[in-house]
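Notebook entry, cofactor series.
This is the third protein in the set we're modelling with a bound small molecule. For this one the ligand is fe (ii) ion. I'm keeping the input format identical across the series so the outputs can be compared line by line later. Sequence and SMILES below, as received.
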Amino acid sequence: MKNFFIFLTSSIIALVSAVVFVVLLWPLGTVYRLVKDPMTLTRKPNSSSYKHYSTLAEK
Amino acid sequence: MDQYILGLSCFYHDSAAVVLKNGKIIAAAQEERFTRIKQDANFPINAIKFCLQTANIKLEQISGIYYYEEPNTKFSRIISTYLNFGLSGIKSFPSSVSSWLTKKLHVKNTIKTSLSSLLNAGERCPEVHFIPHHESHAASAFYPSPFKEAAVLCIDGVGEWATTSAWLGRDNKLEKLWEIRFPHSLGLLYSAFTYFCGFKVDSGEYKLMGLAPYGEPKYYQTIIDNLIDIKSDGSFWLNMEYFDYAIGDTMTNDKFAQLFDGPKREPESELTNREFDLAASVQAVLEHVVYLLAKNIKQETGADHICLSGGVALNCVSNGKLEKKGLFKSVWAQPASGDSGGSLGAALCGWFSRQGNPRHSDGINDQMLGGYLGSEYSDEQIEAYLNQQGAIYSRIESSKLAPTVANILAQGNVVGWFQGRMEFGPRALGGRSILGDPRCEKMQSTMNLKIKNRESFRPFAPSVLTEQAANWFDMDSDSPYMLFVHPVRHDKRIATSAGDDNKQGIEKLKVKRSEVPAITHVDYSARIQTVSKDRNSLYHDLISEFYKKTDCPIVVNTSFNVRGEPIVESPENAYTCFMRTAMDYLVLGSFVLDKTQQPNWEESIDWKKEFALD
Ligand SMILES: [Fe+2]
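Returned structure with ligand:
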């Protein structure tokens, strides 16, 4: 019974998160990447070093 | 009143627990040793029970529990990653997020619930604190090191955001200098090649390192030109167009395969020159980056010593080369550099950095007690088990044990050696080891195929008397934790023929290259463990006796397990492994067992299927 409950919970969460992804995360991410690319994925930063000296709070 | 701290790492890979008493390491163990599941990531309840038992305390007496990571920061990194990768993240997002929402975000609760079985009515669970992942690694490297002041370099796959970080340790303080952030990760670059060469990520990296000497770094420039941009300070940026690890189920993608002449090698299929060359190439890139990072840290801090941690610090070839460069007076690497050691770092961080307790260091000795921090069994316990099994054994008095076993080894036998406390970290250091005669040409293939049940391209490690190490290997420092690779000295090498030199791939291993062929790799290198009397007196005695008989102060030392199995923890694990394999003798405490005298061993299951291939 406990396993069934866990299975049900994770399935519901998975379904909801897929919807959240499509309606929220994806569009938000598109805007986010246009403004800022914190992971420097596509835009190789034009700097002499890839070190971060800042704290995470500044991120 | 004595103060106890519990350190934990779990839920990703290789769970572990550590207990400190007034800042001193009392006990440490990985959960896998008790559950017999390799790199078990579950809550380390067995390891915790062992730690409490060794400290002889109840859970309630622990003043604080320190966990090796900050779950909220890690979760925010994961969400940011999905924001960055657009629609391609849809496949993995639901499963990743559900595991976070149901378990990984509620670490405090999960820990408290999991520990409730150890509390009696009315007892309270100690408070749980989080320590950032790389701070845990840095603490595990600096605080137990012999140094009052040292630079610290941590390189791993990823924690929260950091994949590489630099620190300056001074007394009881650890100051962060800078970090390089996900997805740009040297550890994950190495893991990507591990995956592409057909080995398991998080455990096969060691195999890739062992494969590198067979190849030529032919792809070095391809890697530099396409995959990684390295700055002069050692900082780097990975071109994520070639990798899939940030949000996918695999490490590399089709574009990566195109760059390296075809699809990835299937696990267990034949190794080709491509894999040898890929291993050699990525190893060379790793060594180059580690060197630049260390050079830069030296310039920034002026420190005389450097401490290493994070999974990449287990790359003993890179460590050995860094030491040889002489940038620092000494290099000290944490023996449990992977995430299991995060539990130790978190606990030490709690004691020194958060509670501000003073730290003492003598500049010579580290605080790891030789790595022997795990469980141990008395002769009475061992004998009771052997009697229950109906095993045939002889009890040897302690002064005769070393000469007796040395004799057995010198006759070419393979010996299971189970003595004292179990090691903490991935290497067996003479507590739970399988030993052999390194002079024997067939020893490598015998131990690999008949006992370890694995590929034969991997070299074995030598345990050498500390005082003799420089006579056999080109080294002038100590290597008690098997974390440094050094070459066999020229005067111990044997000239090879032209035919030998033309051999390719795995065939190269069959060439006798030195007086100790079983531990000499194809490039004459060896992963050395130096054994001193003060760290492991019995093991030192054994090798000394072997030296008296053979003029060779070295034995072959490999971990006491078969392929895919965690290192043995108990006499039961050891006897089972002994009976299942072609090991000739087993030495458990004071008891010596000869295989030919043992009763028949029958099992209803196929034990080879019990352990997933690593
Ligand atoms: Fe790590």
